[in-house]
From TrEMBL:
Source taxonomy: Eukaryota, Rhodophyta, Florideophyceae, Rhodymeniophycidae, Gracilariales
EC number: 1.1.1.37
Catalyzed reactions: (S)-malate + NAD(+) = oxaloacetate + NADH + H(+)
SUPFAM superfamilies reported in the protein's UniProt record: LDH C-terminal domain-like (SSF56327), NAD(P)-binding Rossmann-fold domains (SSF51735)
Domain Lactate/malate dehydrogenase C-terminal, residue spans: 174-339
Name the UniProt record assigns to this protein: Malate dehydrogenase
Protein family: Belongs to the LDH/MDH superfamily. MDH type 1 family.
Entry keyword set: NAD, Oxidoreductase, Tricarboxylic acid cycle
UniProt record, GO biological process: malate metabolic process; tricarboxylic acid cycle
Domain of life: Eukaryota
GO CC, one annotated term: cytoplasm
Gene Ontology MF, one: L-malate dehydrogenase (NAD+) activity
Active site residues per record: 204
Length: 341
C-alpha cells in the first residue's frame, strides 16, 4: 500500500508530483551485501517515489559492497549509490546520514531462536551504533538485526554512553510481524491481504509478539482460529527458516517490510503528516513493569517518533498473551542493557 500511495499522487497535468520534487536525504544501509541488505537497498533505490525524498544510498558491509553498488547504480533513478567496505570505511558510509538501517549480523538456522544470535549480533550492533554516535548522532536509527528485543536496548545504551541518545530516533523494526499477520489473517478470513490491518504489539520474538486479533476491522474469527493464527504469527519466521533449510531466515519479506518502514519514515521526515507504523521503541506504557521498550502503533514526524500509541482494548485471551510477552520482554531487554554496560 505504501507503494500504491506514491503512485496515486498524480498532478492535474498527469505528471506524478514526486517527479518534480528532489530528495535530499541520505540513507545508510549497514549490512548492505546481505540477504536482507541487498533486496532492501534495491527497493529503496527503485521505489518510484523514492527520489523525491532520497538522494543518496550509502551501502556499507564488511564484504562485497562494490558489486552491490555497481549493480544498483545501473537502475535509472536519481538516487546515488556509494559503497564502503570494512570498519575503516564506516565513518565515510555514515557521514551526513539522515537514516541508518541496520540489517548487519548473522541470521538464524533451523532450531535456533532469535536470542541464540545474541552473542554475535550484540557486538556488531554495539560497534555500528558507536560509529553512528560519533559520525551522525542526529540520524534516525532502524535496527533490524536480531534479537531486536535486545539489540534495541544495546543501541540505546551505546548512544546514551556517547551522550547523543534521543528516544524519538531509535526504532526496532517489527513491521514484518504486521505484514505476516495481514497475510495469515486474510488467508483465514478469505480477504485480500492488502485490505487487512492487524495490530501487532510487544516485541519481535516468539511469545513477545502479541497479535490483536479481537479487533481486526471486518474480520470475525473463532476461538480456534485465533489460537492457531496467534501461534502462526508468533512463530511465522520459523516457517521461512525451516523452508530455507539452513540457508538463512526471512530476507525478501523482511526487505519489503524494512523498505516500507524506511520510506514511510522518510516521508514523515520530509513533513508529511499522519504517517503511522508499529515499531519497538522506548515507551512509557509498561515502564512500571520494568519494560522500557514496547511496540505499538506510533505516529512519525519530522523528528522521528512524534507520539506513541496506546495498547487499546484487549480481550481476556490477549491479556494473557500480554502477561507472557511482558515477562519475556523484561528478560530480553535486561540482557541488552547488561551487555552494553
Ligand atoms: P546475512 O548473513 O545474509 O547478511 C548479514 C550481512 O551483515 C552480511 O552481508 C554480513 O557481511 C554483514 N555483516 C556482518 N558483520 C557486519 C559488521 N560488523 N558490519 C557490517 N556488516 C556486517 O543475514 P540476513 O538474512 O540479511 O539477516 C540479517 C539480520 O536481520 C539477522 O540478525 C536476522 O536475524 C535479522 N532479521 C530481522 C528481522 C526482523 O523482523 N527484524 C527479520 C529477518 C531477519
Amino acid at each position: 500500500m505504501w507503494f500504491c500511495r506514491a503512485l496515486r499522487r498524480v498532478a492535474p497535468n498527469g505528471s506524478r508530483t514526486y517527479a518534480t520534487q528532489i530528495g535530499d536525504k541520505k540513507v545508510a544501509v549497514l549490512g548492505a551485501a546481505g540477504g536482507i541488505g541487498q533486496p532492501l537497498s534495491l527497493l529503496l533505490k527503485s521505489h518510484p517515489g523514492a527520489s523525491s525524498f532520497l538522494s543518496h544510498l550509502s551501502l556499507y558491509d564488511v564484504v562485497n559492497t562494490p558489486g552491490v553498488a555497481a549493480d544498483l547504480s545501473h537502475i535509472n533513478t536519481s538516487v546515488k549509490c556509494t559503497h564502503h567496505t570494512g570498519s575503516d570505511a564506516l565513518p565515510a558510509a555514515l557521514d551526513g546520514a539522515d537514516v541508518v538501517v541496520i540489517p548487519a549480523g548473522v541470521p538464524r538456522k533451523p532450531g535456533m531462536s532469535r536470542q541464540d544470535l545474541f552473542n554475535t549480533n550484540a557486538s556488531i550492533v554495539q560497534q555500528l551504533t558507536a560509529g553512528i554516535a560519533s559520525t551522525c548522532p542526529q540520524a534516525q536509527v532502524l535496527v533490524i538485526s536480531n534479537p531486536v528485543n535486545s539489540t534495541v536496548p544495546i543501541a540505546a545504551e551505546t548512544l546514551k554512553k556517547a551522550g547523543v541518545y534521543d528516544r524519538r530516533r531509535l526504532f526496532g523494526v517489527t513491521t514484518l510481524d504486521l505484514v505476516r499477520a495481514s497475510c495469515f489473517v486474510a488467508e483465514a478470513a478469505g480477504k485480500r491481504p492488502e485490505n487487512v490491518h492487524v495490530d501487532v504489539l510487544g516485541g519481535h520474538s516468539g511469545k513477545t509478539i502479541l497479535p490483536v486479533l479481537s479487533r481486526v476491522p471486518g474480520v470475525q474469527l473463532t476461538k480456534e482460529q485465533v489460537e492457531k493464527l496467534t501461534n502462526r504469527i508468533q512463530f511465522g519466521g520459523d516457517e521461512v527458516v525451516k523452508a530455507k533449510d539452513g540457508l538463512g531466515s526471512a530476507t525478501l519479506s523482511m526487505a519489503y517490510a524494512g523498505a516500507r518502514f524506511t520510506l514511510n519514515l522518510l516521508r514523515a521526515l520530509k513533513g508529511e503528516s499522519g504517517i503511522t507504523e508499529a515499531a519497538f521503541v522506548e515507551s512509557d506504557i509498561f515502564k512500571k513493569d520494568g519494560v522500557d521498550y514496547f511496540s505499538t502503533q506510533i505516529t512519525l514526524g519530522r523528528q522521528g517518533v512524534e507520539s506513541v500509541g496506546e495498547v487499546g482494548p484487549l480481550d481476556e485471551y490477549e491479556q494473557g498473551l500480554l502477561k507472557d510477552a511482558l515477562e519475556d520482554l523484561k528478560i530480553n531487554i535486561k540482557a541488552g542493557v547488561d551487555f552494553a554496560k
